[in-house]
Amino acid sequence: MRYSLLSLIREGLRRHRGWQPAWRDAAPKDAYDVIIIGGGGHGLATAYYLAKQHGITRVAVLEKNHIGSGNAGRNTTIIRSNYLQPGNIPFYELAMRHWESLERELNYNVMVSQRGIINTFHTDAQRDAYARRGNAMRLHGIDAELLDRDRLRRLLPMLDFDNARFPVQGGLLQARGGTARHDAVVWGYARAASALGVDIIQNCEVIGFTESGGHIAGVETTRGAIRAPKIAMAVAGNTCKVAALAGLRLPIESHVLQAFVTEGLKPFFPCVATFGAGHFYVSQSDKGGLVFGGDIDGYNSYAQRGNLPTVEDVCESGIALIPALGRIRMLRSWGGIMDMSMDGSPIIDRTARAGLYLNAGWCYGGFKATPASGLCFAHLLATDQLHEAAAAYRLDRFSTGALIDEKGAGAQPNLH
Amino acid sequence: MRIPCPFCGVRDLSEFSYLGAVTAARPDPRAADAESQFVDWVYLRTNPAGEHEEYWYHGFGCRSWLIVSRDTRTHVIATARSANRRVAP
Question: Within its chain, how far is the Cα of A11 from the centroid?
């Protein structure tokens, strides 16, 4: 084991001069068995599970910038599996189970903290809807607990229980939910994949596809052409841009989602909470800052930064739930580009172009899905069969009508 | 982001709401391949990184529908004109 208490003590005595880079910064070779476009959490997890579970190690991960510089480094780090729909529950629970063992699996501290996630409810109808959600989760063996007002007040006394417009009546708790360190997830998967022989190639942007006999047979990149019989896209907000290079149009729009962090505080907020009467979610990072976010800005964007009306809206929602937020200064805000699918659920499938595979449409929820996304995408790439946990994430569901009605709003801003 | 409304002048984003891309006309439901045409029309997007023609509604102003040409990489707005074909651009 490279990282252990023993190695930490040994390096501590040597003033930490002996640590080696965690992964190889590889140069591109001419050909691979699989090329994965996108060196974020999903792409690197896919590479890791391809090598680990399917023995496919001639794999390249191409990243146009440095790994984890897209949405993997821009999210609010929440992990959970409190879903309602049949297509989603098994998938996100698969992810949750892998989060629980990820540190042992990767020998890397990804700081998984199962501090619990609470969705507050504010009306009788909403309580019934959350009770139904909790029951659906428990029927699938996932923990869920409906907290009444008094129990919630003991856990989160800082909520505005007597808000005149949205009094807090209680919450749905998933105790196994929580947060993980987003950068460490990227680094952990990169290190583990690299150790198994995967080439991680940074500063290598895909600028075109090469064909052979009607099949996609390789990519043109800023660092030269690379051949592979299977090309996998895991590029989140840039999905339509890359797909257009292969002549594809997809049921995806790119939208900017902003996130925020406040100045550091002493331990104040013990779990993750989401506001049931608006769109707001918050947790406290280990550094002490409150990390929070809300809705997408609501117009197509690739700009990785948003606008002020959304900042105001998110902060208003936050203060409606936690009035004390009004006394805290916001330190930073940033934006990530979401691949908003038209039904709000992801796609892990083949495309109309033979040899090209798609992993996209994660909307707000990509980070928590990382392990399961990698597992299911690797399974698809290795076997050409959909993984049973991701069987509903077909690309053709938009024409067959088998949409997943989890959030249902997709990218359409007037439905949010 | 501020949108130069052709009727009200340059106004703050918060006065507007967004509908989406200015797309091709609704397909003919009597066409032989109407089903696949409707799937394309309802679900598929070009979603370009660059110039994007889109509908905005000036709800807290003149209540006009506008067609705005905006760069999705920078949010810079090139033009904004009325979506009403009877209004001269």
Answer: 33
- Among B16, B76, B68, B13, smallest CA distance to A311 is for B13
Least confident of A12-26, A90-104, A185-199: A12-26
* CA nearest to B13 within chain A: A309
CA A160/CA B9 separation, integer angstroms: 40
> Which candidate from A253, A413, A414 shows the least CB-CB separation from B45?
A253
Nearest chain B CA: its distance from A114 CA (Å): 37
Ranges of beta strands (E only) in A38-186 are 59-62, 78-79, 117-121, 145-148, 170-174, 178-179
Query: Which amino acid would we find at residue A390?
Result: A
CA–CA dist A352, A246 (Å, integer): 10
Condensed to tens digits (0 to 9), the pLDDT of residues A55-103 reads 999 999 999 999 999 999 999 999 999 999 989 999 999 999 999 999 9
Regarding pTM above 0.80, the answer is yes
What's the ipTM?
Answer: 0.94
Give the three-class secondary structure for A415. Answer: helix
Q: How confident is the model at residue B89 (pLDDT cuts 50, 70, 90)?
A: low
Residues of B with CB below 8 A from A246's CB? none
What is the dihedral sign for C-alpha A183, A188, A189, A194? Answer: positive
The CATH number given to whatever domain includes residue B51 is 3.30.2270.10
Q: Domain tally for chain B? A: 1
The Cα-based distances of A376 to A57, A343, A345, A379 in angstroms read 17, 20, 15, 5
The range of the structural domain enclosing residue B41 comes to: 2-85
Calpha distance A342→B20 (Å, rounded): 13
Please report the pLDDT score of residue A406 as a whole number.
82
The C-alpha atoms of residue A277 and residue A270 are separated, in whole angstroms, by 21
